[in-house]
Amino acid sequence: MTPVTTMAGCKVAVFGLGGSGLATAEALRAGGAVVTVWDDGEAARAKAQAAGFQALDPLQNGLSGYAALVLSPGVPLTHPKPHPVVDVARSAGVEIIGDIELFCREREKLCPDAPFVAITGTNGKSTTTALIAHLLRQAGRDVAMGGNIGTAILSLPVPAPHRIHVVECSTFQIDLTPSLNPSIGILTNLTPDHLDRHGTMSQYAAIKERLVTASTQALIGQDDDWCRAIADRCRKAGRSVIPFTMRDGDGEGLWLRGHEVIARDQQGHVLVYPLEGIATLRGTHNAQNASAAIACAQAMGVAQETILAGLKTFPGLAHRMEVLGHIGPVLIVNDSKATNADSAEKALASYPRDLYWIIGGVAKEGGIASLAPYFDRLAHVYLIGKAADLFKSQLPAHLPVTQSGTLDQAFADALQDAQASGAQEPVMLLSPACASYDQFPNFEVRGARLRALAEAHPDFVPFGVSVTKNQEASHGIAH
Predict the structure, then answer these.
(1) Looking at domain 110-313, which of 3.40.50.1260, 3.40.1190.10, 1.10.10.1100, 3.40.50.620 is its CATH number?
(2) pTM for the full predicted model
(3) Which among 83, 134, 148, 198 is annotated as catalytic?
């Protein structure tokens, strides 16, 4: 834990107790703050009260006399309209901040030069965060990883000169962190997402931009117009920028050549990082993630041979193109994290044929129309959730489509069809291109259900366990 001593003796309200909320309250209390908590859910309030916190509703009791309102990133700050608690805080002249802001203030107080890597972007930020942490640990560094990726930032150990904090930041978190100032700030890419919470794409991009403009060293992807413009503005402002791209490059920063990431070290030497055969970094999008991680590791002085070893041993992340294993010849892939079409595109692009695609849930703007270039890779589509009718209307009439309704039924339908196809290695792919909350509380629960269905099958063989040499070759397992 990182006790928040910068709020010692102050009254602080914590609003929203899911995820990082309770950890924030505990860190504030450990640092000497007088803490009250509230959540719209009775169960969350009861859990906090059992931990010894006083539950006071700011909407009923006001915030007069409080030093700060620490807001959960899931609570609307601006769009579609501010949560009523935001208006209460502003009326009382109380600052509204998040848990990462508390961490930044504690870092400034205890050890302002403590290494701090912050990662954001629309897609790929979790994989990039995990890969950076893995590479740095491979180099023997003391690494604390958290933020939006899972562990609340204030649950991590305190900032210290020898300890590197590697933190994934969502747009909601950045919006609540005015003091954000990482040693290295990374922006992977930008495509429309969460516009219901940010109003416009320009506003969404502007919030992301804060992370790199406030960093000592900015690493910025160059594969969309928004990020290229941000990189240009950073350079004009005198900020040090390392670009990375999935395209063939011109020798600046990092670029892709076939299945290799090409980089330069601090002495200008060209370094080659092959990705061929690394199952957890399959696909061009993962080459972008790897490029960002390699650039970060190089900037922190990690040697090429250490980075190469780390890439080969990266275990990957659950629910992100996670290869679960086989049932007979059928490869089961869990990409539940693909909550929008842009993210689902990465999975579709990684498998050229024989795809049995499970999609649906709560659709994002545009549905799956943008994925039309990949429809010829599909053998069959299985629709689940609220988006089923919309998605059916966006698929070509000749493509076999089954209205499965639920994930359980889609799993059974897809497995039966894939096994009967005669293909050498058909792929059952859960890459929903949708939010999950019509049938599941979050994408993790959705992905865990697919895993449970696969593991319950008597013929299931986990990926990398008791597989034949032929299977190893076809899956790209690196030895």
Answers:
(1) 3.40.1190.10
(2) 0.81
(3) 148
